[in-house]
Amino acid sequence: MKKIRDILGMLRLFFRLVYELIKNYRSLTDELEHNFLICKKICTKIVRSANIRLSTYEQENLPTDRPYLLVPNHRCFFDVVFLLAASEQPISFVAAKELFNYPLLHHYLNSIQCICLDRYTKDITKLKNSIAEIRGALSDHNLVLFPEGECSYHNRRMNKFKKGGFMGISGLNMEIVPAFIKIDRIRNIGRWMIPVGEVGIHIGDPFRVEDVSTKRMQAGEIAAYSQERVLELQERVGG
User: Fold this and answer.
1) Is pTM, for the whole model, over 0.85?
2) Could you tell me if residue 112 is left (phi over 0), alpha (psi between -120 and 50 degrees) or otherwise beta?
3) Are the C-beta atoms of 55 and 199 separated by less than 8 Å?
4) What is the pLDDT of residues 181-193, one digit of tens each?
């Protein structure tokens, strides 16, 4: 019986999300901030519909005078919903190429200037283009990167942070902000995860690559250092 309730709850949230995406589609414009507010409104409704108590801690750590790169852990699909609902500043995401294949979703991704990243490509040209897009985005607005590359799902252990999204960011005048998304409980239906109860987004102290090392750090080193900072947050909040 409990499994049936979980499935019905997941379907209810899914159809609510689809309904909101269709309902607000024609309101999208070419303005990032306008489109972000639409996405934030949709995600806030989804969080409320799921009866999730969402809180953000140390939000004052987010820079307000220049773009930043937010690097959180990634438990499930809802992490994107939580971040959009909680953010007071416009944000966009480095998103997996597969997400852009969904007919309606890709319009929303494009509307908030998300970066399409092919996680499995071996084409150097495509990789260089993605790196250039990430650099360009960070010169203009805030960007969220999930360095694990995919959801860790019901496993509380973080996947190793991949270096791909960190390539080419050395020398940029921006800050990297670690974050830990603490989800107290998750109900899983196969690989579909439904967070339950309380969710906390914990923002860590920002850092710059040049503040960590005087030498030019490689992407793998930046990824490893970023994960250390997120793990420190996890240990502090008991996630």
Assistant:
1) yes
2) alpha
3) yes
4) 999 888 877 667 7
